[in-house]
Amino acid sequence: MALHHRDMTTSHTPVDDHLDALVIGGGAAGLAGAVTLARSRRSVTVIDGGAPRNAPAEGVHALLGMDGIAPAELLARGRAEVARYGGDVIAAEVRTAEIDGDGFVVTLEDGRRLRSRRLLVATGAVDALPEIPGLAEQWGHGVVHCPYCHGWEVRDRSIGVIASHPMFTHQALLFRQLTDDVVVFTHGVDPTPEQRAQLLARGIGLVEDGVAAVVTADGSITGVELTDGRVVPREILTVQSLLTPRVQMLAGLGLRVVDHPMGQHVPTVDIGGRSEVPGVWLAGNVTEPSAQVGASAAAGTMAGAQINADLVMAETAAAVAAM
Ligand SMILES: Cc1cc2nc3c(=O)[nH]c(=O)nc-3n(C[C@H](O)[C@H](O)[C@H](O)COP(=O)(O)OP(=O)(O)OC[C@H]3O[C@@H](n4cnc5c(N)ncnc54)[C@H](O)[C@@H]3O)c2cc1C
Prior knowledge:
6 helices, alpha/beta, 7-stranded mixed beta sheet
């Protein structure tokens, strides 16, 4: 795991301080939330394990004004913005987060403990890929999942859709918008008559023999090997990954989770990111598997604003009671 930003951060917050807010996860969602909190003059610390979901990708696309920026560069800028307004970023992994009186205590893997009045969870999610030899090695390069993130970059190429998920026609049809050479490999999924009609109508090929492996040469995909040994030439593959939110460290909080068409055990929140556990907000892929970088950052900003407003109202109520 790359903790590349440790040297770039200042960690002047005492470890056992009682912060206004702790942010777990320093991707687009967590950093955007922290900037909003820091700009609201809230003491905020981000704890980040340094493993954003899009790390394998060369550039971030579909992000207005910053198209193509390297994922690491975008986050480095975000950390600098947090620091500019007085927030901290600590490169560390959170082991547990628990309710502690009217706030929270977060324990890091190295045993350090931090306390806060509010918690913003922005830990993202992990992509589960079909177990096909050679597939994982190409993830983010030759194997892509999102037509909006990488579709333009693979336009006019020969694309193979590995149908490991019921949403495979959605993906096949969206990539068909970008190239006229799309083949679906059913890989255990049995297309419905409606799906077959859609693929046929759009000129998308269908291969129903088993997939054995991804074939590469000089680091690039050249085809898909079937279980009978034949190889179907392809340059790019797409898969719909299944997302599992990174919430193991939150077991002590009792968050309610549901399943989502793109993910499993996704914590539920309201439109502003507030969970059913008082004082806990979530933002980004941890609660919305379909959110791209822009939507994740927007959710973080919204959650940061709501946390600040919640603290303002609590402080105002306390001041009124003290009159
Ligand atoms: C290959 C690929 C390419 C993509 N390309 C694009 C693109 O071009 N454009 C686009 O808009 N979107 C793209 N996406 C989607 C993008 O990755 C997500 O939208 C975005 O990363 C979500 O941001 P996030 O802050 O919710 O989570 P993440 O970016 O995943 O950040 C979560 C952070 O939390 C940290 N964390 C997790 N658990 C802990 C813990 N216990 N303690 C401390 N820290 C923790 C992680 O280390 C990580 O740094 C791509 C996704 C993939 C998989």
